Records
---
Amino acid sequence: MDDAVNDKVLLSLDVNGSEHEVLVEPRRTLADVLRHDLELTGTHIACEHGVCGACTVLVDGAPVRSCLMFAAQAEGRGVRTVESLGRGDELSDLQRAFTEHHALQCGFCTPGFLMLAEGFLAARPDASRAEIREAVSSNLCRCTGYQTIVDAIEDCAARRRAAERTRSA
Amino acid sequence: MREPGFTADGTWVGASVKRKEDPRLLTGRARFVDDIHLPRMLHAQFVRSSVAAGEITSVDLSRVRDVPGVVAAFTAADLDLGDITAVLDRPRSEFVPTAMPVLARDRVRFVGEPIAIVLAEDAYAVEDGLEAAEVTYRAGTPVLSEEQALAPGAPLVHDEAADNVLLDVSMFATEGIDDIFADAPCVVSVRATTGRQNALPLETRGVVASWDARAGQLLVQTCTQVPHVVRTVLAGCLGRPENTVRVVVPDMGGGFGIKCVVGREEIAVAAASLRVGRPVKWIEDRKDALTASFLAREQRYQARAAFDEAGRILALDADVLCDMGAYSCYPFSAGIEPLMASAEMPGVYRVPAYRVRGRAITTNKAPTAPYRGVSRPQYVMVMERLFERAARELGLGPVEIRRRNLITTFPYTGVNGITYDPGSYLESLNLAERVLTEEGWYERQRELAGQGRFLGIGYSCFNERTGYGSDAFAKRRMAVVPGFDISEIRMDTSGTVVATTGTMSHGQSHETTMAQIVADRLGLDLDHVFIQQGDTDRVAYGWGTFASRSITIGGSAVGLAAGRLGDKLLHIGAHLLRTRPDNVELSGGRVRKCDDHTRSLSYVDIAEVAYLKAHLLPKDVDPGLTATASFDGIGDGTFSNASHGVVVELHAGTGQVEILRYACVEDCGVAINPQVVEGQARGGIAQGIAGALFEQVTYDEQGEPSAASFIDYKVPTACEIPDISIHHLETPSAFTGNGAKGVGEGGTIGAPAAVLNAVNDALRPTGVELDDTPITPERVLGALEVRWTTR
Ligand code: FES
Ligand code: FES
């Protein structure tokens, strides 16, 4: 093996608002650093080739497949994982919508969908059901048939808009 | 029959309560197998065969052991483990047992077969190690199809299985059936094939094995649907007493059957961990999950049916051939698919005469396991095709011909010897038709036909046996006979209860639904009931989760155990309240006097006596509040049923099949949690659609699988799976604790038939009918082509 690969690098990462220092091989993915070095195991891996979206996290607010990104590429940027949603034992509005609509069964895909939706709704708070479905189609779920995931995100978006209207009224 | 009443009577059963599983899954606090980190843990992967058939001439791992980070590498000879052999108690003429070695010894039988296990300090180094392995083969000619397997003089996948046939049964053969066919006014036939599929749980398989010195046990944390079965096989292969092995199942990211058989990797990882004296983790990567895990579903049917002029079926004759791949899975064996199809094919219809031959063949492809529905998606599709074809011949409507043949009086004992308990076969079909009719789909179809567009409407009508008990499995002649389940329940001094089960939820919500059952039995709040599963040390034995058995059998056992605990509470309560045992009842978490509701004791009061003031107990009562119960399936089990109605449009330019409307009318008896039932139905239908339209594993001439990533294996997304409306009917089961029937598989069973019928309805103007799945765009374009060239 090339020795250069083995030379570890010291990275400083901003994850969920905290600074972390990790000493890792340059080839180590962001997903592996989150899961195995920082022990934030909520981010899941189901393909490692960028298709399933189970590893979706937010990097500077945008959904990113963390299995396709080297941890080194996340330096100097803000990473958010599923562990940042909600406060303590209190679920966020999006998480609540998922449980209310039965948008998860085994729950393995769920962190990926939550982070995808979080990023998507921040950018597109007025998205229609068809647009939400289109966004949801970038991740895979084998259990639910997707309908309730779309329901949950649509419902959460509607409630956020209603809350926004009340605030500005 | 009535529409379910939900919570009108104030019970937990019937209420769509929020799931107890959800908070941890939503916050990233669940613990899946890959989330487990143990001190000094090593990472394992497997050197796998690159050829589909052949002898191994050498395995050289010396360079592997030199790779930085690699700690050890073992071949079959190094580990010296017993084989995994699934057995049916049938004569050699019907079934040939074949051994699956944990690691291939001298022969390989499919691309991806494990040959050696490599252990390294981290998951990256182990990959480097795999690259340094050198295996040489004397490659043979792979057997990859039915034609090749059955050809005279074909190479043999297993020497003991002449003709490459692992199971060959001929059943029923009603007397005079040939005469019926000869004399019938209408005989139709169907030849159908279904693609090889991957059940594809999103979480791949995985294991963490370690030695627990304090308990003197090998601890195997593995994502399996059948923890006790894995323990039994582990103990056997390792030559250890079963009590020195403990299998614990973490949270599971799906299974759908692929995890209800014992994986050879589970055994190899455990053995390697014992050998090196360190914890070892193996997480299957997606490539191995797609190519080297268990696959399913590749079948071929040749069936014909005789009808009278009125469209009543007179006889059914079928030849079923299942390509089970390289090995027989444990504990079910390669017989599982053909035996299921042969026994159950008449399904919801009154078939007076029946003959079937079912065969399992072995080929040089990855082995198969029972996948959600097990043969029922296929034989239902074939039955429904036969009825549709007969309807066309006889000038009857496709729904009308079904109506004339459905079983409507119950219990009904079929030509296959199975007794069907009450269901709503006709009612569900009528409702499915009404939904599509009232929404105007038939008018829309006529309208669009005028514009040269291809809209089709199709139905499927089916039942599903759930809650197979020991007797039902014994009829299959399995050498180890699944069936019962045991539950142990315990109340502590806080008045809360923990109930155990040998079943293993992997998305089905049993922590919630079983708690609903217990809460009702004891009059407890749902927050005061906890279900524990997936630990062989917590229940004496159990058969796990498959065949839609968990609520019917596991749930019934949990309910019975709760009932027994309730009896003990009553007994103690009566003594403490100084009244007769028949003058007390459970209500709202208390024991009260029937004749004076003001005199009562809370469970906490009783628990305090049972544990902390045992001297106050009646003399004939042991301290503590525990109870155990077991439940076994009764008779032929209980049958769920459903009808699906689908509207599709075929796009002439692309050959794409678009699903415009999907309605499912399901009857699973009492729905413990209607929202969960709907989730099971929708998810099942999505997998059925996946099989009907998209997914297929193919192999090239060398036996190399085509799909090694999600890029080649097309899994449907939210854009391909439509919204699905679920309509409930409720015919309670007399054979289970709560009147519930199993619901895990039904959606998957009905979808391929309904989608295929809808596609064929759309193709009506072309005169072409399709019988094979997946219905690829090429097949649709081919059919539409006929129209352009013949008009
Ligand atoms: S694990 Fe990253 S996309 Fe599948
Ligand atoms: S809930 Fe299981 S994969 Fe989505």
---
Amino acid sequence: MTTLNRRSFLKASALSGGGLLLSSFIKVTDTRPPVVDKAEMQMVFNQLNGFVKITADNVIKIMSPNPEGGQGVKTSMPMIVAEELDVDFSKIIIEQADLDTKHFTRQFIGGSQAIHQGWKALRTAGATARQMLMEAAAKTWNVPLEEISTKLGVLHHKKSNKSAKYGEMATAAAQIPVPKDVKLKSVKDFKIIGKSQRNVDLEKIVSGKPLFGIDTKVEGMKIAMIVHPPAMGLTFKAVQNELAIKKMKGIVAVFPIKIFNDDYEKTFFDTTQFNEVVAVIGNSTWEVMQAKKSLKVEWKEAEAYAEKRNMNGRKTTLNIPAGLESSADHAKKFVEKMTQSANVRRKDGDIETAFTNAAKVIERTYNGPFLAHNCMEPMNFFAHVTDEKAELIGPLQKPEFTEQALSARLGMPLEKIDIKMTRLGGGFGRRSYAHWLIEAALISQQVKAPIKLIYTREDDMTAGIYRPAYAAKYRAALDADNNLIGFHVKVGGMPQSPLAPNRFPAGAVDNYLAEDFTIDTNLTVGSYRAPHSNFMAAAEQSFLDEVAETAGKDPIAFRLALLKRAKENPVGKNNDYDADRFAKVLELVREKSNWENTKATKKLGFSAYFCHDSYAAHVLDLEMKDGIPIINKVFCAIDCGIVVNPNAAKNMAEGGIVDAIGAAMYGKMTFTKGVPDANNFHNFRMIRHNEAPKAIDVFFVENTEDPTGMGEPAYPPVHAALANALYKATGKRLYQQPFNEYLQT
Amino acid sequence: MAKYNLKINGKTQQVDVDPSTPMLWVLRDHLNMVGTKFGCGMAQCGACTVHLDGNAVRSCSLPVSVVGKGAITTIEGLSADATHPIQKAWLEHDVAQCGYCQSGQIMSATALLKNNPKPTDADIDAAMSGNICRCGTYLRIKEAIKSVASPLTPNGGKK
Ligand code: FES
Ligand code: FES
């Protein structure tokens, strides 16, 4: 379970012109075991959340510190502050904060952690501001503090029939010492949290107002694009027709840029597939696109190298081989690795004896391909770099880390770098690796002008940083009574392992072995919606379906029995999940989908997974028409603690389900001699309107647990729910993604 | 370069651009109308959808030279304050996640409803399948379209 040590620092100051400015810093030391993305989770977070401004003329502003990429934090984080502040949510102004390491930390998107980690901090920020306003009123009116109450932004003193808007007391409140302990509301008194609020940017979205990075425009701005090597494993050698390109209409400059210096020690998110690219700069996008097509560049094979990384002092080395890789060779490597010894990550009981004594042994191997993120807004960034300062505007997930990398690259102190965050047209992990911000800055520096760098879709899809490719071999041992007595998983990835060895069914089986391996590659990878879990859930939950079938048991009852065991008499101590909460989502989806009464007649697939501190279980109902699956309905049960913004959370679950069905059915990125086999949406198939489920019902477990992740947990169980339903409908088990290709064969 | 007088959202606008320039970039780069989005540049994603004489077209693949006297409508032309029935339906259904695809989705949906005020599910699928949403908001989009199409709610949107 999560252990958090919290210390809070709150600071009040007066606004110029009168009013209260409350900054609230909450330090969070995250000491959880590295369950998701090891590098990401072992960090010590310094977190600040909440930034309340109340002017003397009663404008109430709540700053939203984290970048917004569709996960809804720009609405839900201010909702939490507003709840404790006791204001009318429809009347406050919500603003995206810039990257501001003085006032905020953990300003990033990742790991579905914004609400989870921000919960207490955001509430404390709101409650503290309210308390200070009340103290200011008590002092001004000369009445006891206990007699002051608030209602929707107004302070009241009943006995004297006095009342004042927050704004009227804001300047006085700024003089009040920040209270150390404030009382937070009890869950039953929540008025904003738990009531759906509409996406605060929606009016702008539906009327086409500039919101996204790609919409940035300033006076004198040039458009820049890059040309990167056509294959992974190649690097820059020379531009061959520079003069001809420069003569083209509207073209200003052509030159190579080097993203990271050779001696630079990379940190968490400094991944880039191509360290040297050619920049083309011109007056308009279309002119630059034409020049880009005419540009001739000589490339050469890159040499093998050891990439040194420094993750908060933890030094690692990644071996990057030379060569032009093909997917066919990758497949062979996975097969080979499966026969070799791997790293034992967890071992319980006596696995060898269990398999020797088994009445039945089931063994299956699963594969998942590389995937491109394909955010709808292609990568882009605005930069204006002068000798004095660097101004950057655009969409990114990890501004603080990227700012550090840029500072090192430009040799410019952090104080001179200003990063403004725009709404992200999708992130899904891809915008954590903001090499394009550095590219934009270097281009601007060299052309001495403000520029906006835009990737074409082709640049975006073929610039590396994919979901890793994976393979997993599962083995299960059943005794004569069909009890699961042994469970063995051996899994690997290129170049990262997806294994979380202490997740279910660890803890529920006496004899358990989890091992992993990695395979070196010169393809770059990065977090992809529900990193690693997106594959582990697919493989494990497909496998458990087959094990339950072999055991002659109902797939839900089979898992519930294991969870009961894990709760009552767990094997080992380090199990990541709460078996009770996990079981509840299984029971909830079983009930809501009417599983028991329909499983014999309908083609239903079940799957459940725990990750990002939340629990999710799905039942997927489909039928085949002319060899094509028609998904009638997906039932989804989730336990993410208190649901802050129910309709938005439902939207996240629906989106996660649709997105995951698309990835499972159609998603793949393969390579031929280093060249990506897909480069745009005509050859990278995305799920479309007609392929989405006809209906999705989302049910939340009602409880008073602190809220946990919602951006990702609905995603991982989808693949297996789909595979298991497809098995019911076609009699065919699916072991490889994308399912569409293997359904036909 | 050539001069074009374009009819956009009821106003005539002059631009001086290369004849091959797609309307998408005319709008975004030359006329500062950034509601129309770039997604793929090859008529595969629908992010750049506008209307040409009332029909949904992909502006990334529509050279300015072929527009002629055609009337272009962009997302900005529906209404400036999100009061068009479709925009209202989008608000009521809280459709968007990241929102990047949504102006294209809305333009495809308005063209559909103009030509077919009571579309069936299959009609909606057929008209909307050129619009990708990576965030997966398809179900809400369909609900929003149906709410405007529904005979019970002639003024756009149901509660
Ligand atoms: S940008 Fe025009 S269809 Fe994708
Ligand atoms: S809302 Fe993000 S792509 Fe559609």
---
Amino acid sequence: MSNLSLKNLSKVFDAKTVVLRGINLEITQGEFVVLVGPSGCGKSTLLRLIAGLEQPTEGEIFIDGVSVAHKPPVERDIAMVFQDYALYPHMTVAENMTFGLKIRKVPKAVIAEKLKTASKILGIESLLDRKPSQLSGGQRQRVAIGRAIVREPKLFLFDEPLSNLDAKLRADMRIDLSALHQRVGQTSIYVTHDQQEAMTLADRIVVLDKGEIQQVGTPIEVYNKPANVGVATFIGSPTMNLFTGELLFEGNKKTFRFGDNALEMGDGFDTPLKPGSYKLGIRAEDLTLGIPENEKNETSIRAKLLVKEVHGHEIQVVAEVGGARIISRVSERDLMSRITGMHKGSEIYLPVHGGNLHWFENTQHGARI
Amino acid sequence: MCSPIYIHAWSKVACECGVKERFLLEQKKKSVLLFNYIILLVFSFIALFPLAWILITALKKKEDVFSSSLNILSGNYSFENFVYVLTQNDGIFLIWLKNSFIIAILTALICVSLASGAAFAFSRFRFPGRKQGLYLFMLVQMFPGVILIIPLYYIIRSLGLLNSISGLILAYCASALPFSVIMLKGFFDTVPKSLEEAAVIDGLSQWGVFTRIMMPLALPGIAVTLFFAFITAWNEFMIAMTFMNEESQFTLPIGIQTFIHEYNTQWHLMSAAGILITLPALVVFIKLQPLIISGLTKGATKS
Ligand SMILES: Nc1ncnc2c1ncn2[C@@H]1O[C@H](COP(=O)(O)OP(=O)(O)O)[C@@H](O)[C@H]1O
Ligand SMILES: [Mg+2]
């Protein structure tokens, strides 16, 4: 049985602002699901509907098979970690963490036991007597998570819990959260606008945009088979290269024309596409620089070098093709040293391999073909 | 790219700049500070001088009050006036003190209980008439109190509460309430919404949120409002003067008035009574002072 089930959920604010529409989602026991999408797409609203902080305009919410859409938060047995931590400033860390248990009249001995376990897991045993104002950002975040853990709820809800931390701490906390989930094993729904966070944390990713679910899948599925142009360009860094053009069949040759490039489709290109207008997506790592003499042929994209971004383990080459930008990732040592010698404006050739191409309809929605 | 020599040169320039600028900055800071102190001194003097004058007068003998000598040290000081004020007329001053105290304390408590509920609603709920209600409170606050005395008199009289302590409490609550609501709303507004939501998820009811989250966090505001309501009632003269006509029901401000006679105002006694009136208010303020520390909501959220 699924732990959480959303049926045709929608939310309209002030009778005119449609924030969510037709959300259907099944989440199974113990899953870590990440809701990801650009700012303002309705992620927080969806989480708040599940928490009971907002009422749905339409649709149903089931937790363990029980309809809760119109029940107050206290009857849903959920815990939520807020973006701004929302710790009670007038209470100590220990009081913050056990407040929910006290309200639920859990026996004192049990509370003490749970507090001990949770604070040990999070490594905040030494902070229990402090007030929130005496903690660093990272420590506050731990306390906020601790407050959720001690309750042992049916569902953990996280609303961008790491977005107020600096990059280094964020990376550490991400790992801690993963480890924590493996240990506690509670069903979790985690909201973020950071696709990298989504990829690294999720068992399953739900991509949300404009109030609708765009795709649901494992991180690998979403990365390798994005459902549409929106997902394709949102997931993955750097952003997927996208070309709009015409696929032409001339005898045995299949050519994709975009700008002044005529790209001949080489081996591995066996998608049963009809001739016509398409969007072609290629991830930067699938566009590795070739050697000019060998690669100067019809299966390469010809481009002008704009910028070399050195990342240490790789170089991201930003080039220009017919006025559009194209990004290629180079991680092989020989190639990296060759690029280092190149200048702005140099002509480069980027060989394309059929197996790594993403074809989308040339429409606004741009569904995957 | 950046050779050590460059770095050295740059840091040297940076240091020199820093020292000179810091020096100028400190000079500037000092002169601003001095200016601030002078202003503060002037205003402190203006505020404290009358108080000092009253204190000295209270300690003087009747015949010395109008002595033109400004020499503070030359006078003949004693606590005689205080003793007289406290014991005259079978110690009626103490009865007035008791009346005033009961009225002011009850006014403060009732007013803050009512105002905090209203302020919470105005701060957190969206309901029809919310805006208008707030404007109305502001508007009421802008009327001079004297104008309200006559209608208030009629209301209190029709309730049969003239010449009674409860009538005065009612009138004082009514006049202190609007400002208290506005002030407390301001404090409630500073409590982040997410705190409330966290509490609701932790299992608190709306009432629980109010009593266990909002009230403790608005404690400085509540202390300020308590003091404001207390002082409003403690110092009030016009309404009490209009409503009360039995000497045993007087409050201090009207009691003190008995020292004013047509041809002979007893300044030395008035001053002593004035000092005696101020002391309880001072005690209340000192008691509430520790609560009026700002930054109680610090640490709730990210910043
Ligand atoms: N209480 C509200 N009233 C009106 N509009 C709202 C309210 N809450 C959120 N919205 C709108 O709904 C949209 C989605 O908001 P939100 O769920 O917070 O997005 P996200 O968390 O994905 O950034 C935004 O355009 C926001 O302005
Ligand atoms: Mg959000």
---
Amino acid sequence: MSDVVVTKRSKKQAMGKYGRIGKVLDELDDRLGVAKGGRSFLDKIFPDHWSFMLGEIALYSFVVLLATGVFLSLYYIPSSAIVTYHGSYLPLDGQSMTEAYASTVNLSFAVRAGLLMRQMHHWAADIFIGAMVVHMARVFFTGAFRKPRELNWTIGVTLLTLAIVNGFLGYSLPDDLVSGTGIRIAYSIILSVPLVGTYLAFFVFGGNFPGTAVLPRFFILHVLVVPGIMLALVAAHMALLVRQKHTQFPGEGRTEDNVVGTPMFPVFMAKTTGFMLIVTGVTALLGAFAQINPIWQFGPYDASRISYAVQPDWYMAFLDGALRIFPAWSFHSFGHTIPLEVTIPAVIFPGLVFGLAYAWPALERFVTKDVAMHNLLDRPSSRPKRTAAGVAVLAAISMLFIASSTDVIANFFHVSLNTVLWSMRVLVLISPFVAYPIAYKITSELHATRGSGKRKTANVVTRTEEGEYVATAAPAYADDVAHDLAPTPVPQFIETSQPDEEPESGVRAIDR
Amino acid sequence: MSEHHEHRTAVSLEGLREDDPHLQPAARNPQLVERVIALTLLVGVVLIIGFGAAYWVNAAPWTLGATMGGGLFFLGVGLIAWAKYLMARGPFVEERHVLATSQDDRDAFAAAIVERGGGVVKRRRVLGGLVGGGLGAFGVVALFPLLRSLGPLPKGTLFHTDWRAGSFAVDITGRRVRVGDLAVGSIVTVYPEGTQNTDRGQAVDQTVLIRLSNENFTTQKGRESWGPMGYVAYSKLCTHLGCPVGLYEQQLQLLVCPCHQSMFNVNNGAIPNFGPAPRPLPQLPLYVDAAGYVRAQSDYHEPVGPGFWERA
Ligand code: HEM
Ligand code: FES
């Protein structure tokens, strides 16, 4: 062996063309056969359009939720055992409260970075659900849910539902005065279900409200069951995305049979990692500077106390609004009660909204009889009816959202609560019927206008020798003209101008 | 499937020359852009180190968030700028291949399920029925313990509170309320003695005691004896969704629920005159005993709180 001289170059040759990484990949491929699939994954093309980032915001705030949530669960105690607080937050000293509340106060004041993590977790939840809603609107208004992507739409609606549920569960965990009232309301809503409501409520709460089972149950649902299901669904959502490839807006060189944009590696990967850092960073900045849910100010939950402005997180507000403005129509007959004043706004109505969301792809297909595959997106303006329908639903839900602040509105504008109540009732009922024709009109006009979205160019009027006036359109602004290169396939290899082997030299570096 | 792959490989085997415009950065002045990005990333790195230092010295939460958030933010911006301005500008294209496989594949797949699998069952219907029936029965039977262990059955519990004939009304500290304790127009939350510090006492039995006058007060026909010496008592659970009806508008003599603004008129049996609550707050019949203590004649005559199916 000693007569073999090991040089850097001979070592490099033994390693193969791609060095150590190539070697590792070879070993992997021997065992798993990953080279071909891996390569085509790295070549996956992502369309460049800002609206495709919305889903990424949702994804990364989910990541932030998982990370901060694990931190919180190291300190939070899901127990309704009563303790006397003697911690570092003096105004509560000596008060008796549940361990859950005490541990959340401790998390906020005694655990290093605890308050930051709590506020980041809460902000991330609000951003998460917000991003999901806007992402869903993007998918809806561009028709991205059409064949072959109906399944991913269904997964998306399920994710939104679960996120809202999990947000409510998490919001309930600190057991403060505001969230406890929320749990009380949730209990009464379950109770309102005809026929089985009392049984359901007793099974969920382990007995009559409040009992001691609810916090541990909500906890395990919140940190394990629901996030576990969501994680699986997110994975399925992404897998379908890779399998079916992205949609894209129509444009030069873009057809139903290709995708134009940025390859996964390295460009998209760098962008999306940067994006993850920004989402996390912004959440941390919000957690640092924008106080959210200061539970130590609300005090511990006490079923016979109530704070004045009870309002849930924003994503529950439309339900609260519906509960506020629905009339007191209880139904009594045959020795039974159906609390319609609760069942309709809080059970049937959200069921209809989410049911409509689930059913939309099938409904649209039923109406348009369109069974073709669609990889090119619609512009919202090219589908005035769908766009108007979406705007109508959003209008009604926004009105319900506003209706969750009837008391605040009445105080602020010094009008009677009754006036506000009736105005909101009218607004909720008529807003979709007003929004639909307006949105329809605007979108169809937009659609009919050529070159909409581009700047108008001047009409240059010239006078000819004979005194005739001629108008000619000036050429389009340079910025408005697409000057992209024609798209090219991701190169399999890159030809470098210099040879990549070092020229043979007389000197050999000997390495022992 | 494999056909598509071969086709695909053939297409993407193409290379590009290093000086191909698709591989050039989008930035017009890459050197300058690189310097700006380096600076951005540097700020990020410094802030992240600052975060470590802030954590070490246990700085205020906002310092932790500012350094960590700012650091990640600048790193992210730098990375995105690098990708956007300095990496290959593209655009690149990828073909979609048809997801559907051939009709033969589909037929073979369907045949496997219908003929190979279905045939097995068809030949032995009884076995199939038994296996299917057994699994189905297990599914149903498994639901019972799963559901039933979750909690007790409601039975009559929603129809009663802990108020009994003779219960003393006590406040949250456990002090019995005497007839001289409240001035006209005052209000206090009371519980049947012994429950004031229990979950159930607070969530179910809570009752508002209001003194409306100095004489016996009748809120409705048939309740002539319920309001001795001007004391009337109503369940504190809103009949809408069970929030405690915690605000008393003394001038209007209204109990207001802060959750969805239901309002109950205490003079006439707490009939709601505004808001989504469908029923009056149940009234608790009271008497004043010889020693001057305010006590309950009986439990409420109807279930307290929000509505449910079994309620008449
Ligand atoms: C689907 C994603 C999630 C959403 C929407 C969500 C939402 C929330 C919200 C709004 C709160 C109330 C925070 C506050 O006190 O202001 C909360 C609390 C909490 N969450 Fe989550 N969360 C999610 C996932 C997770 C995960 C995966 C974990 C643990 C592994 C977790 C652990 C906790 C803990 C322990 C609390 C109670 C401590 C506290 O309130 O400070 N969460 N969650
Ligand atoms: S709970 Fe009282 S009004 Fe809704």
